[in-house]
Each structure stands twice: as C-alpha cells, then as structure tokens.
Write a structure and sequence with these properties.
- By secondary structure, this protein is an alpha/beta fold.
- The chain has helices at about 30-40, 60-65, 80-90, 105-110, 130-150; strands at about 5, 15-20, 50, 70-75, 100-105, 120-125, 155-160, 170, 175-180, 185-190.
- The strands form two sheets. The chain has an eight-stranded mixed beta sheet with strand order 5-4-3-6-7-10-9-8. Strands 1-2 form a two-stranded antiparallel ribbon.
- Helix 5 links the parallel strand 6 and strand 7 (about 155-160).
Length: about 190
C-alpha cells in the first residue's frame, strides 16, 4: 500500500511529492489554504527566515524553501512525524538549503530557538488538537506564544485555525491584519 503524499505547489521543487505524517498525530493544511497563503506572501518569501511552529510533515516550511526562503526552522514533538519531516527534507532539499529541525514540544523550545536569526522572520502556526477541550487550551497557549515573540524579529505571524474561533484584534505587540476563511479552516495574519 502506498503512503499518502502531498505535492509542493510552487517554486523550484514544484510537483515533488512529500510523505505525510500520520493523521492521528497531525493535520495537513489544505492545498487551497496553502496556495492562498503563498499567493498572499508572493515575492516577500524570498530571503526570509521561515518558522513552522508545528511542522508535522513540514509541507508549509518546505514549500517556503521551494519558493526562496533563506532558512527554515521546524518544530515537531511527535517522533514518527519528525522522522517523516526529516525524510522529506533530506529527499527534497538537495540544493544546499539551510534548515534546522527541533524535536520536542514547541512551547518548551521556542524561547531559545531564535537567537541566531535576524529580521525578517515569518512564523506559521497550525497547532494540533485532538478534542474541543484540548483545542481551546492549545489556542490559548498559541496566543501566549505569539505575545512572547519579538516584533523586531518577526515581520509576520500567521495562525491557521478553525473558522469559528474568535480571533483577538491584538496579541502582544502584533495586530491582526486580516483573516481569510476556507470552509472550516481560516488563516489570520498578524503583523
């Protein structure tokens, strides 16, 4: 039986297949949502440091690399998903791209992960959740994490979330720029 795959939508690796992490531990971003995200960023992805806070298979960060990001940082705490992420990076990224994988809980590791990075950074946050109770808790933790991020380092933070979530207008020093809805999922942009 073939493992499920995702395709890279644009850039130098367009059309290449990525292995997917188990859907029991991760949720992959919809292609239409991912395409809209990168259309919104357009050429501003070139030369940035891209951080995928809950990477799973790494499809968003690898897409960023494919489209010209200078560096990508991936956080993943599930061992099987991290193995898939590393496999995808080693299989796809063959042009000397700069990236780093941090295995472990994002909320524990992010405060120490950015010391070598410079402006501009773009952060992509698509938190995993397994139940309604867990979902509310994880979004609260994401809001706190965003509030703790350094505005002089991060040009943009994007939160992928369920469309029914009431998004605050401000989180720390970041203000909501816009939200785009894609059925049950939405993207909210903070700058």
């Amino acid at each position: 039986m073939n493992k499920p795959t995702l395709r890279i939508l644009g850039g130098i690796y367009k059309g290449r297949k990525l292995q997917m992490a188990s859907l029991e531990t991760t949720r992959s971003s919809k292609a239409i949502l991912k395409e809209s995200f990168f259309d919104t960023l357009s050429h501003s992805i070139f030369g940035v440091n891209f951080i995928e806070f809950f990477a799973g298979s790494g499809s968003v960060g690898i897409e960023a690399i494919s489209r010209g990001a200078h560096f990508a940082l991936f956080f993943e705490k599930d061992q099987a998903a991290c193995d898939v992420l590393r496999f995808n990076l080693q299989t796809i990224c063959k042009n000397g791209e700069n990236y780093r994988v941090i295995f472990g809980d994002t909320f524990q590791h992010y405060p120490f992960a950015f010391k070598d990075l410079q402006y501009p950074c773009i952060g992509y946050i698509d938190p995993p959740f397994h139940s309604r109770e867990n979902m509310q808790n994880i979004y609260e933790k994401c809001y706190q994490m965003i509030a703790n991020l350094d505005k002089s380092l991060f040009e943009l933070i994007v939160l992928e979330h369920i469309s029914s979530l009431a998004i605050p207008a401000n989180i720390g020093s970041f203000g909501l720029i816009k939200s785009r809805k894609f059925g049950k999922s939405s993207l909210s942009y903070f700058g």
